[in-house]
């Protein structure tokens, strides 16, 4: 397939591009800079200049592709409303371009806010509906396009998509530990995250593009539950720092913006995903990656 990928030079997107090329697919990656363009062409992909606010570039990229994989997000933690607006507009532009074609539209989503008190399953619908909801309600918006002849597929990523070079949540926790001189967890450390290795996540995206039926929700989850205390202990070992409990009211000053996520349990299972696509995660665990020095460079 000729796949148009947004976020193609990002942490997950660059692994997805590698996975698609290795499987014999053609890749056209959205590139917002000359540096991004160079990275894509060096891999053997084609660069398509534009960004999330260039809706015409998104429409054109989707119209010329046999599949669309939407991984980009502004992740503007200081202005989440802007991130939500841009996400919804981008999904609408891509979906409109694919309407009636039967071609796949893979849209990245997250596990936060789905359910409380248990791991989320693929059957759990996102409660985010409408432009003022989390991520602009883009998950439900994308699924709505299944009724308009689009093979829409949602991939919900674990809060930690880990590996060497990760600049996500665990990277910020590691930076906070360096700054504070100790690796912290909040309260008793019983809150937990799901996790998946970056290469396993990339393979799932490819399988979803190739095989998943319209309206499918997939969970990029290898480990259902890793406690935040286990994460903090691994970070402490990797940096040679003591491990401490941080009071919930001190989480913001101690951890920065990532503190509110570290205080939340975000877990999910992936049994249905693994069964549907014969996807078997095989990468290192999150703790194994931290212990191996993935976050100490």
TrEMBL record:
Pfam families in UniProt: Epimerase
Transmembrane segments: none
SUPFAM superfamilies on file: NAD(P)-binding Rossmann-fold domains
UniProt GO MF annotations: aldehyde dehydrogenase (NAD+) activity
InterPro entries assigned: Epimerase_deHydtase, NAD(P)-bd_dom_sf, NAD(P)-dependent_oxidoreduct
Superkingdom, taxonomy of origin: Bacteria
Gene Ontology cellular component annotations, sorted alphabetically: cytoplasm
Protein name in UniProt: SDR family oxidoreductase
Source species: Streptomyces albus
Lineage: Bacteria, Bacillati, Actinomycetota, Actinomycetes, Kitasatosporales
